[in-house]
Alpha/beta hydrolase-fold protein (Shewanella metallivivens), 309 residues
Amino acid sequence: MMNRVYRLVGLLCCGYLSLYSSVVSAENSHNTQSKSASQWADAYASSTAVSIPRTQQFMLKDASRDYPVMVKLPKDYQQNSTHYYPVIYMTDSMYSLQVVSGATRFPMNSNVMHQAILVAIGYQKGSKGASSRIRDYTPSHDPSWKLNTGEANRHLHFIRDTVMPFVEHQYRVDTQQNTLMGNSLGGLFGAYVLLEQPTLFTNYVLGSPSLWFDNKHLLQRFIQDFSQTPAISAKVFIGIGELERPPYTVDNHQMVADAQTFYQILQSHPSAQTGALQLKLLVIPEADHSMAFPTTAIHGLSWLFKRAD
């Protein structure tokens, strides 16, 4: 009889301990989760916006249009008060500045590459990015597009007459060392500037230029007119992804072949024969249109600004 009582008491104790253990385990788990949630809440509460160092944004006017322009100064700009810096002007600011700032940070800060002021020009305030860039970067009007096209000339004058004078007034600028960088439609715009005002910039970095636009209108203009352009002293870097060709491109655009044709046209200019016009074409292995620009940017700027050993 006593043995049965002992066994019953033992079973009850084991059951209680098991239940207690489960409760404690659940409470510990809840406390751990609550603690983690509390830690996350503290992390979110202490979060701050991250900005690119030494970078300011200005709003510049083109008549009724306002454009954000971001300027990043070199690391030693404040300390080296007598030095005048080259300027790299970029289209598509929200994309290009982050890429170029990150890619050049180490080589410029470690003096592997000459330091430069970065100026990135954005899209018209209040407009959708696509509508502003398609309008501003295309050199001819194509009625087959739903969005407005063909105002590259106006945008060129805005950069020449407003953006560049502003930068040169605000900062110590080497006006003999201006670079224009653009990608895709921005690369098309850069090619347009090279044809229309080839002396405005001393360097051009043209990534994946959309020379297919408007049935290759600008490329045809180069074929017809570029040989008549007066002597040019400039460096032109063209980058294109190996996969920027059918079947990897939208509407089967032959962007690699177009870039090669463009390069050959530039090569045929008398200034290229004398060495005043220096050219480089980089076909980037395994890169498509979405991937090519970062490689174009760092290779192009290294070619232009790398310090001699």
Q: What stands out?
A: The chain has nine helices and eight strands. Residues 1-20 have pLDDT under 50 and may be disordered. The CA atoms of residues 207 and 273 lie 24 Å apart. The first strand starts at residue 55 and ends at 62.
